[in-house]
Amino acid sequence: MKNHLWSLLSVLLVASCGPQDQPKETSTSFEQTWWKEGILYQIYPQSFKDTDGDGFGDFQGIIEKLDYIESLGITMVWMNPFFESPLVDNGYDVADYRAVLPRYGTMDDFQQMLDGFHQRGIKFVLDVVVNHSSIDHEWFKQSRSSRDNPYRDYYHWWPAENGEPPYRHSLFDPEGAWEYDSLSNAYYLHTFAEEQPDLNWENPKLRQEVYDIMKFWAEKGVDGFRMDAFQFASKDTTWPEFPEGHEKDFIKWYGMRPQLHEYLKEMYHEVLEKYDVFAVAEGAGSTFEDAHKLVDADRQELQMAYHFESVDMSRTPDGYELADFKEVFTKWDSAFAENGWIAIFLSNHDNARLVNRFGNPDPEFRTPSTQMLNTFLLSMRGTPFTYYGDEIGMTNMDMPKIEEYVDVEAKGKYKAALAAGEDMERFMEILNYSSRENGRTPMQWDDSENAGFTTGTPWKRVNENYLEINVAAQEKDPNSILNHFRKMAQVRNENPVLVYGNYELLQKDHPTVYAFTRTLEEEKMLVLLNFSEENSSITLDEIGDLDQIVINNYPDLDTSEGSITLLPYQAAIVKIN
Ligand code: GLC
Q1: Are the beta carbons of 346 and 332 closer than 8 angstroms?
Q2: Which residues contact 124 (CB under 8 A, 6 or more apart)?
Q3: CATH code where residue 210 lies
Q4: For ligand 1, is residue 129 a contact (CB within 6 Å)?
Q5: How confident is the model at residue 29 (pLDDT cuts 50, 70, 90)?
C-alpha cells in the first residue's frame, strides 16, 4: 500500500440511478491501483494438480500449470491455506503459520511457485486464517496445559467453577462454541469446529505474533492477504447473554464486535502500509456502513471486502429470482459508487459450482450459461474473483449419501438437522445441491484417468463428467467456455471502463434480461445478459447508437425491428456512441 503507487484519476461520472430517475452529474475521484484493475483466480491447491501421485495437489502441480494460469488473462491468484495442518477443515485449521504442509512440497517449492507467478506478472494472495488456529498449534498446546502458562491468554477460556459460559453459537458444531477441556477444568471458545479454537485478539502479544507472521510472508513476496473469517476476531469479553434465537442473525451478533476496527488499524500500520500489498476481508458485516468502515481508504484498515448476499440468495435447488440478483448487485454497486471497493464473486471453495447455482448445467445450456455468468462477473465494478474450474464450466457432483461427505461443515449440519428432527430427505437434497464439497472436486484437465489430476487415488472423487468437461477438449474449441473466459478477461484488461466506469441498471423489471451500462468519460458499454433458456427481447430507448460488439457468445446479435433479441443465455457487450 505504498502511497507512491497511488495516482488519482478524476472522472466525471453519471451517478447510479434507476431507469426512471433523472441522471445527475457528479464528480468523483478514484484511486487507481492494481488490485482494483486485476482479475483474481482462486486455486484450491488440494484439488488443482498432483505431481507425486499421492492424490493430493501440490506446488509442483501448480508450477506445471503456470502457463495455463497465465493464459487465462488473470492477474492475481488467491490460494487456499497450504500451511502445516491436521486438515480437519482442509487447512483452515493451521498448526504452524510459518511452515508449509509437506504434502504440498517444501518452502523452496513454494518460493519457486511464487517466483513463477511473479515472472508472469501475476500477484499472489495469501489466505490468513487468524480468527482461530488448530488445536495442534503449539500456542494452543501450551495454552491448554495450565492456567498459568504464558500462552493461556492466546485463546478465550472460561473457568468451569464460574458455571456454564453464556451460550455462543458455532458455525460448525451443533453443540455450541464452548468446549470443555479437562486439562485445566475450563471451556475454550471455537466459532467453527472444536479443533479450531478462537485466538484471543484482545491480547496485544497475540496480535504482534500475527503481524510478524504476515510480515514473514510479505518478506517472501506475497502481494495480498485474504483475511479468513476476520469479522469475528473481536469478542465482547464481558460475555453478555445474547437473546434466544440470536444466532439466526449471526453476523450481526458475532461480527464487527467492539474492537475489530482498532485491531485492523493496528494491522494496517504494523504490516499493510509497509509493503505494496492489499488485504481483503471475507465478509463485510451486516450493513453497508459496516462494509465502508472496513474498506474506505481514509479508514486505513482493509482495502476490499466481499459480501455473501449473492451466494446467500440461492442455497436450495429451488433456485433464485433474477429480480433479486439484479437488486443485490445494483445496491452494492451504488453503495460503493464513490468510496471504498468490493470484490465480486459467485462461487468459491465454500459454495456449490457456479453453473449449478446461477446458470443451467443441462448439456444443452451449460456452455452459454457459464459464458454468460463469466461475462457478468468480468463486466461489473469491483474486483472479480473467479474460482478454478469455473473457466471450463465444471459442475456439481451427485452425492446423495452423507457417508460420502468429508467436510466438517456438512457433517455438523447433518448432525444438527437430525437433532432438530428435520425432514432428512429434503435436507440431503439441499446438501447435495449446495454443499461446498461440490466446489472442491479435482480439476478436470483432460480425458485420461482421474481427469489428468493425479496418477494415484484422488483425495476426492473426480466428477464423472470429466470426459466431456475438461481443459484439453476446450483448448481445441474456439467457442468453448474456456476460450470465452480468455476473451472476456482480455476485454476487461483492455477497457478501464469495465473497471472504473459508472454502472447503470436498465429495464430493472425485465424478467429474463439483465442489462446495464458502464460509463467512463466518453466511453460507454452496454452489457446484455439473457438469464433464460428462451429467446428474450429487450427494447432500449435512448441508449444511443450501438457501435462495435466487443464480445458475444453467439455469432450474431439480433438488433432488427427496434429491439434486441437475445438467444438462450446470450451474453454480449456493445460499445455505445
Ligand atoms: C472461512 C473459510 C472456510 C472455513 C472457515 C473457517 O469461511 O472460507 O472454508 O471453513 O472460514 O476457517
Answers
A1: no
A2: 76, 77, 79, 114, 117, 118, 221, 222, 223, 224
A3: 3.20.20.80
A4: yes
A5: low
Residue 308 Cβ < 6 Å to ligand 1: no
Give the 3-state secondary structure percentages of the chain, helix then strand then coil, rounded to 5.
Answer: 35, 20, 45
For residue 173, report the distance from its CA to the centre of ligand 1, in Å: 14
Ligand 1 touching residue 192 (CB < 6 A)? yes
Q: Is residue 206 pLDDT above 50, yes or no?
A: yes
Give, using CA atoms, the residue closest to atom 6 of ligand 1.
92
Q: Are residues 130 and 143 in the same domain?
A: no
State the catalytic residues. 228, 282
Residue 513: give the domain boundaries: 12-21+498-576
Query: What is the average per-residue pLDDT within 195-224?
Result: 98
Domain end point (choices 455, 489, 523): 489
280 with 252, same domain? yes
Close Cβ partners of 200 (under 8 Å, ≥ 6 residues apart):
153, 154, 155, 156, 206, 235
Q: Are residues 396 and 538 in the same domain?
A: no
Report the candidate in 228, 39, 1 with the shortest Cα–Cα distance to residue 122. Answer: 39
Say how many Å lie between the first and final Cα of the chain, rounded.
37
Query: Would you list the DSSP string of 52-79?
Result: SSSSS--HHHHHHTHHHHHHTT--EEEE
> Which atom of ligand 1 has the smallest separation from the CA of 408?
10
Query: In the numeric block, which cell numbers belong to residue 356?
Result: 449449478
**E-only strand ranges, 208-292:** 224-227, 278-282
Instruction: Give the whole-angstrom CA distance, residue 564 versus residue 391.
Output: 27
Whether the per-residue pLDDT at 10 is higher than 80: the answer is no
Q: Tell me if 251 CB under 6 Å of ligand 1.
A: no
Q: How far is the CA of 161 from the centre of ligand 1 (A)?
A: 32
| Cβ–ligand 1 contact at 89 (below 6 Å) | yes
Could you tell me the CATH number of the domain that includes residue 570? Answer: 2.60.40.1180
How far does residue 92's CA lie from ligand 1's centre (Å)? 6
The CB of 139 under 6 Å from ligand 1? The reply is no
Question: How many whole angstroms from 18 Cα to the centroid of ligand 1?
Answer: 36
- Closest by alpha carbon to 432, among 420, 416, 415, 414? 414
Average pLDDT of 15-37?
A: 55
Element (H or E) spanning 331, and its range? helix 322-335
pLDDT of 296-343, one tens digit each? 999 999 999 999 999 999 889 999 999 999 999 999 999 999 999 999
What gap in Å lies between CA 492 and CA 469, rounded to an integer? 25
pLDDT tens sequence across 165-174: 999 999 999 9
Q: Is the pLDDT of residue 106 over 60?
A: yes
Strands 571-576 and 523-530: antiparallel
Answer whether residue 379 shows pLDDT above 70.
yes
Pocket test for ligand 1, best of 90, 92, 312, 351 (most atoms within 8 A of CB): 92
The predicted model scores a pTM of 0.94
Determine whether 189 is exposed, middle or buried from the number of CB atoms within 10 Å of its CB (0-12, 13-18, 19+).
Answer: buried
Q: Indicate whether residue 437 lines ligand 1 (CB < 6 A).
A: no
